Amino acid sequence: MAMATWAIDPSHSEVTFKVKHLVISTVTGNFHKFEGAVEAVGEDFNGASASFSLDVDSVNTNSADRDGHLKSGDFFDAEQFPKITFANGKITNSSGEYSLTGDLTIRDVTKSVTLDVDFGGVAKDPWGNTKAGFEITGKIPRKEFGLNWNAPLETGGVLVGEDVRLVLNIQLAQQG
Predict the structure, then answer these.
(1) CB under 8 Å to 97, separation ≥6 — which residues?
(2) Block means of pLDDT (10 residues each) for the chain, length 176 residues?
């Protein structure tokens, strides 16, 4: 079976994140500009390689002030580090349980991360294009990637939670 290339269909995909705010509620944000590709043999995607990048400047939390702060040197430092990348990714299917392991780079810090994958399957759209669907979830400790800013609260605790939950709903389109 031949190797197939799949590209992210941005009009049917989303990249979101969630982080605790004031320890009592959750702020949700997303990135609007991203791209990625998967190389796979077969349609079960076991052993497939994956890469991904997103534009930090496209962050949106529905608050212009907060988005500006996230783009600043306190967090992502979008001017110096305009991309977040995921490289050397490998999709593994172990008895129907999928995972994705690879090198996540935020700012100038690269760490290996493993994310859970819910593989939705493969289907043809009404125009004859072959598509594959995935929901990728996981949690990353933001301080390990140099996202250290925080503010203590008078009541104890801190303004921004330590862990960031990721939820990526990805639809791939087979190329060629």
Answers:
(1) none
(2) 91 92 78 97 92 97 90 91 97 93 95 96 94 96 71 51 88 94
Q: Please, where are the H alpha helices in the chain?
A: 64-71
Q: What is the pLDDT of residue 129?
A: 94
23 dihedral zone (left: phi>0; alpha: psi -120 to 50; beta) = left
Find out whether 103 and 110 touch, Cβ atoms under 8 Å.
Answer: yes
Phi/psi at 28 (nearest 5 deg)?
-110, 140
d(CA 101, CA 123): 25
pLDDT of residue 148: 64
Give the Å distances, CA to CA, from 79 to 68, 83, 100: 11, 10, 29
Its pTM stands at: 0.88
148 burial (CB, 10 Å; 0-12 / 13-18 / 19+) is exposed
Range of the domain at 71: 3-174
CA distance 54 to 91: 19
Q: Over the range 70-108, which residues count as b (16 or more CB within 10 Å of their CB) and which as e?
A: bbeeebbbbeebeebbbeebebeeeeeebebebebbbbe
CATH of the domain at 32: 2.40.128.110
